[in-house]
Structures are given as C-alpha cells and as structure tokens.
C-alpha cells in the first residue's frame, strides 16, 4: 500500500464539477493499493500516518501529529501510485490491485483511519474521475510504502 501524504491548508474533491468532499487544515492522503496488500498493511499505515509529526509546534518545529492537532483527513484512491516506468514511456499499472481487491481495502483503510482519529474522514469517490484541489501547506509531501517500512 502506498500513500502520498500532503499537509494542506485546505483540499477538496469534485466529481463532474460538483464538490463531494472538502477539508480545512489537515492531511490529503492519496492511497494506492497493490495486489499483495492486506489488512496488516492498513493497520501499519494508518498508525504511521496519524502519528507523523509534520505539523508545527509553537516554536515552529514539525513536532505535532494529526492526532495532536485535531486536523482533518481526506482520502483519495489513486491506482497510479503503483505505476512502473521501467520500460518505455507508457506507465504500466500491473502492480495496482484490481478494483475487486482494492475497493474493500480502501473502504477499510478509511474506517480504520476514522477509528484512530475518533472522527470521520472525508473521501473521494472510488473509481471516479475526480478533480482534486489543494493548498499544500509548507509544502510538505511525504511518500510512505507499506512494503518498504523505513
């Protein structure tokens, strides 16, 4: 499971030009699921994300987590996070899980993240063509891969 996490001042998701989700200060999380992913990846990744100390403390240092700040979260499914550009110029998405495998894991990820935060998280619409708008705060953008637990 791969996640691109962006600290945002605000973010929103639109489908067919209608805003379906939006947040103020918090994290925009793009989530990619691969065929080998299972619920253990969800537990590890949600704990990692909620505990990341990437929000500023009163001294201006990145020392606070999403749990500490009470910030919001918006999760957007994005299979292209598993693109391989190894051969040629056209990306291959062979490692990305099928929607039959990835949609339940996406939904479970959102539910577990909500449980850790003790509040609902906003969501994109799985499988839809979405427009994502955001103001990256910092900018702070971090890539986390559950297959490479550094």
Plain-language structure description:
The protein is of the alpha/beta class and 150 residues long. The protein has a single domain, classed as D-tyrosyl-tRNA(Tyr) deacylase (D-tyrosyl-trna(Tyr) Deacylase, Chain: A, 3-Layer(bba) Sandwich). The chain is 24% helix and 37% strand. The chain contains three helices and eight strands. The chain has helices at 39-51, 66-69, 99-117; strands at residues 2-15, 18-23, 26-32, 55-56, 62-64, 72-77, 122-123, 130-145. Strands 1, 2, 3, 6, 7 and 8 form a six-stranded mixed β-sheet that branches. A two-stranded antiparallel ribbon has the order 4-5. Helix 3 links the parallel strand 6 and strand 7. Helix 1 packs parallel to helix 3 (99-117). The longest helix is centred in the C-terminal third of the chain and has 19 residues, at 99-117. The protein is globular and about 45 Å long. The chain starts with a strand and ends in a 5-residue tail after the last strand. The mean pLDDT is 94.
Biggest β-sheet strands, sense, barrel: 6 strands, mixed
Number of helices: 3
Structural class: alpha/beta
Number of strands: 8
Residue stretches low in confidence (pLDDT < 50, at least 5 long) are: none
The CATH class assignment is Alpha Beta
Sum up the overall morphology in one term: globular
CATH topology, anyone?
D-tyrosyl-trna(Tyr) Deacylase, Chain: A
Whole-number radius of gyration?
A: 15 Å
Give the N-terminus to C-terminus distance in angstroms.
Answer: 14 Å
CATH homologous superfamily descriptor: D-tyrosyl-tRNA(Tyr) deacylase
Report the sheet-strand fraction.
35-45%
Number of separate domains: 1
Mean pLDDT metric: 94
Kindly state the percentage of residues in helix.
Answer: 10-25%
Query: SSE string, helix = H, strand = E?
Result: EEEHEEHEHEE
CATH architectural name? 3-Layer(bba) Sandwich
